[in-house]
Amino acid sequence: MLAFLLADKTRNSVLKVFNWIESILGNDLFQKTFPIILTDNGSEFSNPLSLEFNHDGIGRTRIFFCNPGASYQKGAIEKNHEFIRYVIPKGVSMDNFTQSDIDLMINHINSLTRPSLNNATPYDLAQILLDKEVLKKLNLKKISVNEIQLKPNLLKKN
Fold this sequence. Notes:
By secondary structure, the chain is mainly α. It has seven helices and two strands. The protein has two domains: 75 residues, no CATH class; 70 residues, no CATH class. 41% of the residues lie in helices and 5% in strands. Strands 1-2 form a two-stranded parallel ribbon. α3 links the parallel β1 and β2. The mean pLDDT is 93.
């Protein structure tokens, strides 16, 4: 899983993230890594063609939408949202967090074993399925099992 801080909940903010990821990975690796993106019908995804094609008109992914009220169609992502709330409880402002904080939280979440993955971690699966450059370029790292922390103090500033 990846997560990004957005300046606001607009399609332009999401587009900036897509463009940034493509600038880091290049178009070929972006296409290979994210051939399909499944999302909800939020306003930030209201212009799917701008996400599917880069500014040069070259395709980079395909966007598909879940049916309204059908969160089960997004599979395990709902459990990941629960893990995020362990670290950043509902109602806590995101204003003081940096993208590095979010990366750290995601690395902890991705390093947690899952029964649905035969007790492997999402990171383990990513190592098998994704180009090694993707993990490196997107700052994805495995956290050792005895260091995983899914509590608010993970992101406390000293």
